[in-house]
Each structure stands twice: as C-alpha cells, then as structure tokens.
Design a protein that fits this description.
Length: 517
C-alpha cells in the first residue's frame, strides 16, 4: 500500500513538470485527465471548465467516454457555484446514477475535484469507476494535493489562449485596415507593415520589415516634419502628441499619391519611447477635390467675367445718353454683345453638363444619326468663323448611321473642332473623317496646330484641365470640352483617345456603335 502511494506521488511529480511546460489548453487538459485517471485508477473522466461570461460549465476534455455521449452528462454540471468556498455538488452520486442509466454505461463511482484559483472556481474534474469499489479517502487526498497545480496550469494556458486570441485579433485589424499602418522601433526600423501600406508603397511586407523607415516611406514635397527622413538624427515627440506630415509618395510604376502620415509615440512604464505607430492615409482624392474646387472658382471667375465685362462695357457705352453713335458702331457693339452672350450661354451649359455628369444624371436620347451630315453642319458653322483654316471632310461614301443622341454628338464635334481651331492659331488644315468596321464607327478630327506634350496627353480628358502654355493663357476655355466629349462618347459605349505631336498637330479619335441597318 505504501509503495503504491509512493508511486502515486512520484507520478504526480512527473506530471506536474510536464504540465508547467504546456500552454496549449486542449492538450494540457488531455494530459491532466489521463494522468489523474491513471493515478486513482478511474476508467473514465471529464474536465469541465467555466465559460465566461455566463459561468456555466462546459466539458473541455473527456476520457473513456464516447464523445457523442458527452451532452448527456449535463445533469452533473448543473448548479455549479461561482465561489470556491461554496463548492459542493449535492447528490453527485444520484446524478451519476441517472446519467449512467440513461446512456447505458456501467459508471457506478464518482469523485469530483474542484479546480480553484484565487478563490474562484475554474472548473471541475470528474472521475468515474465502473466496479463496486468507491474512491477512497487516500484517492481524494492525492487528488486534492494535486489540484492547485492543475488549476495554475489551466489558468496559465487559459491566459495564454486569451492573449494569443487578442493578438490575432489585433494583427487582423492592423493587416486589414484600409489605411496604411506600420509599427516602428525607437530607431525607426519597421517592425510591422500592413497590406494597405504594401499597396501604397509597392514594398512587400517581408522586404520592408527590418528596414529603416526612410527607405520605404520616402516622402517628397513634405509639409510638416516626417520621421521617415534620412536626415533625421533624433526622434522627438512632444509628450503624447502625434506628429502629422503630408507629402507625396513616388510609387513603383512612376505614379504618385498624396499621403498624410500620423506618427504616434508609445512609451514604456519608465517613459522611454518603445514604439512609434505610423498611420498612412491616401489623400490623393481629397487633394484633387480641393484642387478642383479652387480651379472651379478661378475658371468660373475668369471665364464668366470676361464676357460679362465685355457685355457690360458695350451695353453701358451704347446706353450713354450724352453720346450719339452711328449705326455702324451700334451694330458692332450689339454684335459683340450677341457673341459674348452666346459664349456665356455655352459656358454655362458646359458647366451644367459637367455637374450633371458628376451627379450621374446624364441621359441619352438615342436614334439613328447620320454622322457625315452632322459633321458637315458643324464644319459649316465654323467655316464662317475663320479664314485661316481650311476644312476637309473625309468619310467613305457608305459610312453607316450610328446609334446615338444627335444633339450630344453635335456637342462632341463642336468641342473638337473648336479646339482644332483654337489650338492651331497659325491656321492649316482641319480634317474631319472616319471609317467603320462591322461593329463600330471611328471618327476623327485632325488639326495642324501646336500639339500636346506627351506627358500631358493622358490628363486632358479630366475636367478643368488645360495644358499650361502661352497659348493657354491667351485663349479662353474652361478645360471642360474634352471632359464632356469623353463623357458623351463613353455614355454611347464608345472610346475616345488622341494622338499628338508637339509642333505638328493633334488628332482626336472616338468610336460609336453602329445603328441597325
Ligand atoms: P473649353 O473647351 O472648356 O472651352 P479648353 O478648350 O481649354 O476649354 P478642353 O477642350 O477640355 O478645354 O481641352 C483641354 C486642353 O487640352 C486645352 O486647354 C488644350 O491645352 C489642350 N487641347 C485640346 N485640344 C487640343 C488640340 N487640338 N491641340 C492642342 N491642344 C489641345
Ligand atoms: Mg475646348
């Protein structure tokens, strides 16, 4: 008997060593359960742990009982007290008898071992025997002496599980944040680098991590002080205050985005800087919107003011009561007033169209359109406005009708031809023509004007965009024409693009779907 007890103790010692090194809760519980069952020669057992926040017991490990039968052990788990000093499971034996009879298992003896940590009950270990030999007082003592260590090991594993679950959540939040996030050490080397930031910078996380942040987030044209700058020698925060910097970020393909970076310090208990969290937000769209707002104001004020002041000037001159104008002067004055009102009207219509397009309220009235006739009409209306340019129409005789909105397409021709005139101040040929294939018709307007520098060509279809040149300053325009053309062509399901060579000329092409024939 003595040697049996000794063996028990030795065995216990071995298990407690194994237990302390195990943090994975399920495997720890299995180890505990099989060990205690062996020590007291139990054939089956359960470990039930309290689940927060309800405090109900839930079976977390079993031994010698088919898993499918585990729910049937619920009566054993009911009425479990919260506090250790209230621990008692009344009628344990009766409950077991009930369960055993219901599931037809020969479980006759039961002992329950509470797991207590700091006055709280973490859970219970139940052990069962099938024979008629009840658990002895010695069994109970051996288990009781072991219970505290089991409780500590369980508690540690639970805490570890909780901490790693929280870490996983945090990692997921950082990784999936729509903003760029990185965590830097006090020497500003990158420790954590999320996906959004990889996309913004073009740096894969595995390459960015470990590098000084100025290599990865080198901002240009900064306003404010960036911590990611090669020249920076010491990192200094004003208490908890974050540092905010705005700047431009060159991306791998050569494009640029505007970003705002917020650097927040994180201190340890002694007040030393332990981490810097950098939050990077793409503010390109915001900047564009800001720029557009200010362009809008300047365009509108400039473009609207010119005709208004001309109209006002002529009208007030003609209206002077002390002067008598000859009919020639009056006609000239009225002519200017008439033309400038037209311009005002056109500009206002363009502005309205542009805002309609942006609001998504742009509807086409489709029908068969004879593009050749439309081109001829528009060319005729321009022919009288210029004697420097000569127009050539170049369509094949069987050019098909297209399916479209005639008035909108007239606007496209008007804008393209007015550009061809405006941006070829020296005159030359303006050719309007097209060709077709089975599915679509392609139309072009070609001039021999100043052309467009290659780097500007992609931007012209944005609204309010005008190429900065001396001609731009001397010609009028809101930078809306090509934007409207693009919107109209795309609403038809077509495409618009241009080819241009500075000094030689520009050709704008667009496609339209062919109507039923
Ligand atoms: P708006 O058409 O609103 O009166 P705009 O002519 O300046 O003003 P767009 O028609 O959108 O605006 O053209 C945008 C810019 O593209 C122009 O300012 C000009 O710099 C350039 N551009 C357009 N067409 C030509 C062309 N045929 N040749 C050279 N530059 C052109
Ligand atoms: Mg134009």
């Amino acid at each position: 008997m003595i040697s049996y007890q000794l063996r028990q103790r030795e065995y216990l010692l071995q298990i407690s060593r194994a237990m302390t090194s195990r943090l994975d809760l399920p495997s720890l519980l299995r180890l505990i359960l099989t060990s205690v069952a062996e020590i007291v020669r139990a054939e089956a057992g359960l470990i039930a742990l309290r689940r927060e926040p309800t405090g109900n017991l839930v079976i977390r490990a079993s031994y010698g009982v088919p898993v499918s039968l585990l729910p049937r052990f619920a009566p054993l788990l009911a009425d479990f007290p919260l506090r250790a000093d209230e621990y008692a499971i009344p009628d344990l034996q009766t409950r077991l008898n009930l369960v055993a009879r219901a599931i037809l298992l020969p479980l006759h003896q039961v002992i329950a071992l509470p797991l207590t940590f700091e006055e709280r009950l973490l859970g219970v270990i139940y052990l069962f025997r099938s024979g008629s030999i009840a658990f002895s007082a010695n069994d109970e003592n051996v288990l009781a002496s072991f219970a505290d260590q089991v409780a500590i090991a369980v508690r540690n594993a639970q805490l570890y599980q909780q901490v790693s679950a929280e870490k996983q959540q945090l990692d997921a939040i950082i990784e999936h944040s729509a903003d760029g996030v990185m965590i830097l050490d006090p020497d500003l080397r990158i420790l954590v680098f999320n996906r959004a930031l990889s996309q913004m910078t073009g740096w894969p996380a595995e390459q960015a991590i470990g590098r000084p942040c100025y290599q990865v987030l080198a901002l240009e044209k900064t306003s404010g002080r960036s911590l990611c700058s090669a020249e920076l020698v010491d990192v200094h925060f004003d208490g908890e205050e974050p540092l905010v910097v705005e700047g431009e970020l060159a991306r791998p393909g050569g494009s640029r985005i505007a970003v705002s970076v917020t650097f927040s310090p994180l201190y340890d208990e002694e007040g030393r800087l332990s981490y810097v969290i950098a939050n990077v937000v793409d503010i390109t769209r915001f900047r564009e919107a800001e720029e557009m707002k200010s362009t809008f104001v300047s365009v509108v004020s400039h473009e609207l003011k010119t005709p208004v002041s001309l109209i006002k000037g002529y009208a007030s001159t003609l209206a002077r009561e002390d002067a008598h104008w000859d009919s020639e002067t009056v006609r000239e004055g009225l002519h200017v007033i008439n033309e400038e009102s037209d311009r005002l009207n056109a500009l206002i219509n363009n502005l309205l169209d542009a805002s309609r397009i942006q609001a998504g309220g742009f509807r086409l009235e489709r029908g068969d359109v004879n593009v050749v006739r439309l081109a001829e009409q528009v060319v005729e209306s321009f022919r009288i406005q210029t004697d420097r340019h000569h127009f050539v129409l170049d369509f094949p005789a069987d050019f098909p009708a297209v399916l479209g909105d005639e008035e909108r397409l007239r606007q496209v021709f008007n804008n393209l031809i007015s550009n061809a005139i405006k941006y070829a101040p020296g005159g030359g040929e303006i050719r309007v023509g097209g060709w077709d294939d089975d599915k679509s018709a392609t139309v072009y307007v070609a001039d021999q004007g100043i052309g467009i520098p290659p780097e500007e060509q992609g931007k012209l279809f944005q609204h309010f965009y005008r190429v900065d040149s001396s001609l731009r300053r001397s010609t009028q325009g809101a930078g809306l024409g090509l934007y409207l053309c693009k919107s109209i062509v795309e609403a038809h399901g077509g495409r618009i693009w241009l080819r241009s060579e500075p000094g030689k000329g520009t050709t704008v092409f667009f496609t339209l779907p062919i109507g039923d024939q």
